Amino acid sequence: MRQVRPQFQAALQRISSSIGRLFPVGTRVSQPQGGFVLWVELPQQIDGYVLAQQALTHH
């Protein structure tokens, strides 16, 4: 685990940065303490289901 922890941390930073660039304005990203999970909150006017369907159609 000690060897892969830095790799996971770097991956989380890349993903968080990509979300900041590519997701709708007003999207919030946080990383809960003690894990390798990101919590993403979309702006209220964005339907997460519709966004996921659009993402799937664009691969």
From TrEMBL:
Domain of life, per lineage: Bacteria
Protein name, UniProt field: Uncharacterized protein
